[in-house]
Design a protein that fits this description.
This protein has one domain: Rossmann fold (3-Layer(aba) Sandwich). The protein is about 35% helix and about 25% strand.
Length: about 240
């Protein structure tokens, strides 16, 4: 009998770039309401994994979301079903305003709650509200990261895929971004986090997967991974 709380079930995921086998038989599972991280060195295959799950890369293997086979679905179809990716590098629309960027996150929606959700995003990210008419390209890196997260929230995600949200940010802004991520998780959104800062990722997530050379080498509770000698040596500076 299927587990009704199992939101994402991935078995044998593979991604190739020509002759390069970037993601190798990856399997992972995420239950509703969980916050799970995927850590590993640069080039380990973390971003490729997220892009494959968001159907932005060709991939093989079994991918089930909310009990549905999503392996052949288009990216925009997944967004409509509640699976949304915040990409590495933010990907904001530089020549559009903050408000216009946020509304792009709701472009598939036809319900009457879009404006109410826009206000909720502004309540969560008041700095964006203060500058709502400002062009996205003129924002700082941290503000653009907040905007990318807010845009994703406008799609009303059930599962949020976050790719390197701290990349290139000053420590103070990293703390603010992760405060927002914790707040989002507290509201019931399930999160799969890819993060170069392994200590930070494990400190906010309940479970983690370690990726090496395209494959999952270890998975455990975050507390166990934080105390694992191999993880400490490789990723925590221990």
């Amino acid at each position: 009998m299927a587990d009704p709380d199992l939101l994402l079930d991935v078995q044998g995921l593979n991604v190739h770039y020509g002759g390069i086998h970037a993601v190798k038989d990856v399997s992972l599972a995420i239950r509703k309401g969980e916050m799970v991280c995927l850590i590993g060195a640069n080039g380990a295959g973390k971003t490729s994994t997220l892009k494959a799950l968001a159907r932005m890369l060709p991939a093989s293997g079994q991918m089930r979301y909310a009990g549905e086979d999503i392996a052949a679905l288009a990216p925009h179809t997944l967004i409509g079903k509640g699976l949304t990716l915040v990409p590495e590098g933010r990907g904001v629309f530089a020549r559009m305003s903050i408000t216009e960027n946020l509304l792009m996150g709701a472009y598939l929606r036809r319900d009457s709650e879009v404006n109410a959700d826009l206000e909720r995003v502004y309540d969560l990210l008041p700095r964006l509200k203060e500058r709502h008419t400002q062009l996205a390209g003129t924002l700082s890196g941290g503000e653009q990261q907040m905007l990318a997260i807010g845009r994703a929230l406008m799609s009303r995600p059930e599962l949020l895929l976050l790719d390197e949200p701290s990349m290139g940010l000053a420590p103070l802004m990293v703390a603010k971004v992760f405060e927002v991520i914790r707040d989002i998780a507290s509201r019931g959104v399930t999160i799969l986090l890819v993060e170069q800062n392994a200590r930070l990722a494990l400190s906010v997530c309940a479970r983690g997967y370690v990726m090496e050379s395209g494959a999952i080498s270890l998975q455990d509770a975050s507390s166990a991974l934080l105390s694992d000698e191999k993880v400490q040596r490789a990723y925590l500076g221990g």
